[in-house]
Design brief:
Elements (H helix, E strand, L loop, with lengths): L4 E3 L1 H8 L4 H17 L2 E2 L2 H14 L4 H11 L9 H14 L3 H12 L4 E3 L8 E2 L2 E4 L6 H5 L2
Parallel strand pairs: 1-2, 1-3, 3-5
Antiparallel strand pairs: 4-5
Helix pairs in contact: 1-2, 1-3, 3-4, 5-6
Length: 146
């Protein structure tokens, strides 16, 4: 597997969430693999959503969440600009996605990611060359063997 992997907010949230141990373990396994292989990518939208949701859910973890976000700056977050906004609208119209999901797909496409790691979209769906992977149904090793 040679493509970069764009990570959606839900993966970052589940990595912190002890309420669902199985999902937490999967999210952490994916994060470890992406760090080791240096293939993880995100957008500033994802970082903003992660911060807002994590602080709302676990106010006492604000320093840990901020530290995690600072670390994730090495994943080269994509800023949302006019070109990505325009692309997101075309993706939204073509695939009937929510505005926020279409922004995620557009950001991933703008940096030539091959995969989108999320549980919010249909696993296996090809969105303009980006394959949707559900991190809670797919082990990292199975993707990296391709």
């Amino acid at each position: 597997m040679t493509g970069t992997i764009f990570v959606d907010t839900n993966v970052l949230i589940y990595a912190l969430d002890p309420a669902d141990v199985k999902k937490q373990e999967s999210a952490l396994a994916w994060q470890d693999e992406l760090w080791d292989r240096q293939l993880g990518r995100i957008s500033f939208q994802v970082l903003q959503e992660f911060y807002a949701k994590a602080i709302q859910k676990w106010p006492s973890l604000h320093n840990e969440v901020r530290g995690e976000i600072m670390n994730m700056l090495t994943w080269q977050p994509v800023p949302i600009d006019g070109a990505i906004l325009d692309l997101s609208w075309r993706i939204q119209d073509r695939y009937q996605l929510s505005f926020w999901d279409s922004l995620i797909v557009a950001a991933a496409k703008s940096i030539n990611c091959r995969y989108l790691l999320t549980e919010d979209l249909q696993a296996g769906q090809d969105l303009d060359g980006i394959l949707v992977v559900n991190p809670f149904r797919t082990e990292p090793a199975s993707l990296f063997l391709k």
